[in-house]
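Annotators were shown the component list below and the corresponding predicted structure, then asked to write short factual statements about the assembly.
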Amino acid sequence: MKRKLWFVLALLVITATVLSACGGNSAGNIKPPAPAATSNTANNNTANNNTANNNTANNNNAGSSSAGNSSANGPIVLNGAGATFPLPVYTEWIQMYKSVAPNVTINYQGIGSGGGQKAIFDGTVDFAGSDSLLSEEQYKKMPDLQMLPMLAGAVVPIFNIPNVDSLVLDGPTLAAIYLGKITKWNDPAIAKLNPNVSLPDEAITVAHRSDGSGTTEIFTSYLGAVSQEWKDKVGIGKAVEWPVDNMGQGVGGKGNPGVAQAVQSTPYSIGYVELAYAKSNHIPAAKLVNAAGNVVEANAETMQDAMAAFADAFDERLTAKIVNAPGKKSWPIMGYTYLIIHMKDNKDCAKTKALLNFIKWAITSPEAAKKAAELGYAALPQAVQQKVLAKLQQVECNGQKVMP
Amino acid sequence: MRKASTPPQTDGGWRAALTRRLEHGDLIWRFALSLAAIATVALIIWIAWSIWVDSAPSRQAFGLKFISPWAKQSWNPVLDKFNAWPAIYGSLVTAFLALLIAVPFSLAIAIFLSELAPPRLRGVLNYMVEMLAAVPSVVYGLWGIYVFLPLVVVPLGNLLAATLGKVPALAIFFRGPIPASGLSRLGAALILVIMITPTITAVSRDVLLAIPRSQREASLALGATQWETVWKVLIPYGLSGILGAVILGLGRAIGETMAVTMVIGNTTGGGYSILRPGYTMASIIANEFAEAVSDMHASALIEIGVVLFAITLLLNAFARWLVWRVNRRTVGR
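Structure shown to annotators:
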């Protein structure tokens, strides 16, 4: 009997030790997912190589024991993670870049902007992708983080009204529909914009994203820019509380496909998706009246126009909102997507250099821009390219400038 | 090294005792098996503890209002105001509605399979039921969106809205119209019926088959019809096992994420009507967690995880209690 007791006790102790060893520092820390551990091991491997190099190179930077330079021609692995909005472009770019720099392998995981921000914060990736801006708090904790605009995307309203294949809306009307103030398609406000269309006397079903998303952030930014009531009542964000939901007229879909599916299967509905998605799936999109009062449709030209109109809108952090652009041909619902990199806290100079070269190639090379346009995104205009290149010049590794 | 704590023996000391105990492998076996068993318990505690800790900001900010049906129903990531009731209601109503339909249906199939089906048909049907249980839930979701919702749920929803929706007391639960796409709580519940039926059927069939032949023979010999035998002998005899099957189905229904997310419409509003779109606890977590940038938003989603965990535990405890009661009654008779 007594022996049994001892036995059970011993068992418990051992189990506890094993478990706590496994648990380690992960003590109940569930937060939005960080990318897989592969990036860690990759980092460690290169770090080990560096230490070896470091001894011979005799790098005398204090406090950076694992720092140094990997040999220039060895294979370099760059790990990134974050926003899914630009994922189709990044995937193509990474493929294309293999022929430009065969020794550089780039991995990008689309885990969401929030996950990307967390990953670069935790140091598990070399760069992050994000549609949403870092918060003041995050800048305070890690002041050397820098957001670099990479390309812009447009969001388009899509609709499903049987026998109607062209529709014009303006900002206040779109906001009123999403606020639940316009509930029927034959509302005078819509009718006024579409004099030649016979609009049905049917209730509008309003589709939106159910998952948090950069697309929603761009869309709500636009609604907030054109409607004070939207800004006050609902606000701007990756996920918001939709007034139409509380009226029972809303429906949420997961991802662009979810929204598109909800709209396509629901007669008399409206929704919003990325232009790239609408384009590749041939979903008809509504035209909009822009800030200059012209009716525009979303395409490469109107996107470029909006970006050019806001070329000087960048603050010192190199971020800009480009919704409701004032240009004559500007498509009004647009947003930049960014890469986040470290300006100073770089230890492996070969890696940093490879990353900067990739970014430079991505924003300046004509074939990269062409690929982005093909997929329904807009590459940076010249003026913005210059601003990003100027930032790249200032990136430091172990206190030294990296770019020539 | 901890094994050294085995108390010393009088004959030959602890070393010999240890050797003797390890010699035939019994101790090692016992250790390995106990470790596996304890690991299960430890895992549950570990999970519960971590989600409890991580939900602290949300618990402190909202308290009981978080799960209250009477608090202002708001799920607002912009203002960081969260109330989970719509998702809790969505989970409960879809799961119980699914159970209400699936249990009689599954029992009928199980009884047919164990008592009535000719042997050849039985083999085929058994295989089919197991196949249904093995279909991945995302496939059910896809099929639901493109086939099941428009062809079955929408007409059924319209019918319910036109009939039960007009009854004053029930109108709150059956208020139409159902969206033309069929995305609704009813759609989710019916998809769940299809998903949990194979589970409940397979387990209850095994329960019925395990009942000794003598029970059936005795009943028939007393002059009972086959129906009476099934209803008055077999079902009561296997009741605790069948209850277990039902609970298994309920567990799957309440935790199902993917298929439900695809057909429920994902809105936090929508009132109480089963014909309107809604949300479930599992689907709101799946939808929003990846991009929950604000800490409070993430914490609120984790707290929904806590609630889901607690509800599952409570249901399981309730099921245990039911089974225990049933067993006691059966023995007592």
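Statements collected:
1. Residues 295-332 of chain B form the longest helix (38 residues).
2. The mean pLDDT of chain B is 88.
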